[in-house]
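Convert to structure. Protein one:
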Amino acid sequence: MDFTQVADTGLRPSRIGLGTWAMGGWMWGGADDDAAIATIARALDAGITLIDTAPAYGQGHSEEVVGRALSGRRERVTVATKVGLRWDDRGDVTRDASAARIQQEVEDSLRRLRTDYIDIYQVHWPDPKTPMEETAKAMDALYRGGKIRAIGVSNFSPIQMDEFRRFAPLHTVQPPYNLFERGAEREVLPYAKERGIAALTYGAICRGLLSGRMRADTAFTGDDLRSDDPKFQPPRFAQYLRAVERLDTLARERFGRRVIHLALRWVLDQPGVSVALWGARRPDQVDAVSGALGFALDDALKREIERIVDDEVTDPIGPEFMAPPLETSAV
């Protein structure tokens, strides 16, 4: 496993991190806590030392599962969680990055995570209703008070990060980024690289689309967010599946690996990426991580990979559907 530095913090997490959104159950068709805890244990055994979660992942449930799983192992792990989304009794979510909400949420997260500090604390989404100065200063107070070891933001633009940094240090940024969703490389990743901000990118296998396990008849049930994801709807779904098939062939012919390994390696080898977050909720889903280690992609091969995607995906779309509206939403 490779490791990276988060500047000015002393944190040195693994370059592959475990994402735990699905462990919360919400928008992923339910939760299996025993499987989730076993998954976290498998990730630690595989050398992963960064665990990323959020209160909104199951209205606190994901954090509770992470806290249980890390009992007796807390010091081995860089724990990253988030703040700034509020939910009501119906589970409807709104953005709220006010100072009062941050002060309440950090205490709730510490309790659920069974810890007295958070390594990386991230504003989950920008909140236009709250002045950036208020949000940033509230985060800075937690940092100076020792409750958090690094300040991060998630889903922020460079302009929003510039405004945030007027009032507080900024150590990490978390954008979506994978072979099918490359918007971050236009501005966010160069911005982070130039300023020494660690980029913890999420969605490395694009909600399972790059796993190689999807088929044209794959169905999503319950509250699974992929039921509403435009990538998983016709006619786009067929385009993405053709790209995955060709990428899988390339991975097998060049490296004796599969598309899932190639997709993760591609993210890790992009300029400005510090950590690639790998979502999982079953132990077997962690096993593919090892296949992304021990090789690298040169520029010529990256261009070939990107040509395949451009050839097959003629109607691309980004992850915009996941953004919370200002009033009510999903994550």
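Protein two, convert as well:
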Amino acid sequence: MLLKDLISKLSLTVIGGQSSENIEISGIGSLQSAGGGEISFITGAKYAKQLEKTKACAVIMDYDSLRAILPPDLKFIILDSKNPYLSFAEATQIFKDASLEKSGGNGDFDGGYFIGKTSVKGKNTVIFPGVFIGEGCSIGDNCRIMPNAVIGNNVIIGNNVIIYPNATVYDNSKIGNGCIIHAGSVIGSDGFGYARGKAGYVKIIHTGYAELEDNVEIGANVTIDRGAVDFTKIGSGTKIDNMVQIAHNVIIGKNCVIAAQTGIAGSSEIGDNVTMGGQVGIAGHIAVGNNVMIAAQSGVSGNVKDGEIISGSPAFSIKEWRNSVVLFKKLPELFKKIKEISKTKD
């Protein structure tokens, strides 16, 4: 696309450099790797040295915060933004949309996939070869369902949804508008529910469903179980990293971010705007409030109030946890002193 079109879409201000009217750009790269036909971005002063050697034709930055340390004789156009990381994110969206248009074509692949007779799909939705779609499904407009994805029966999928290769969406699941499900993820599988009898474990057949509200993104190899008798729900705007397990009947609020290898046990409820680091473990049947931050590798075994920042296993206030870590490192020294004191008393 033309650089001027990208500038217009992102509402950026051009500072210095050559005219941007007819410069063609093909993508986005780091300051180190970007070629002459690509743009880049910088988010802080520690990367300023890289501006001297970058080959990018334009760089998104907060000009006011960097102008004093910019190297002389810049060879690129400055695209001024008060939030360069956000502008970078929005630019990637624009290039992604263009890429999907190229890869998707204008129609379906005749005979390359199966769709049930009672299922319907919307306008400009592209279904790639190897896809299976069961009966009674409704698929919205402008969707992309990539090769070998499996969609069960009675699944509702909104508009502008992307489902990547080898993802599986079980029966009765609901996928909102603008959702992204990455490769290998499973939405709506049975939860881990068994009753113990004399002859062994009896499986609880899960009759509920899983629901993703609008603009949810699910990373690769994520598993989200269906509800046992009602539902598991992921709130709108929530983003989930790769290899996360969400058990049956869990409810996650809006605009949460959950990093890789996190596990949330059954029937727990997570509030809005919650941030979880990698490898967090959430016990079952507990409530985590709104605006909570949970540090990586924390184990949460009890309810958490709104706005708390916690760490450790079991998790507690991060301020107290940091003090405890300092003391823990000193335990060998303290123990040695205690032994010496004991000897002197003897």
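The helical segments are 3-10, 63-66, 84-104, 318-345. Residues 324 and 330 are 10 Å apart (CA to CA).
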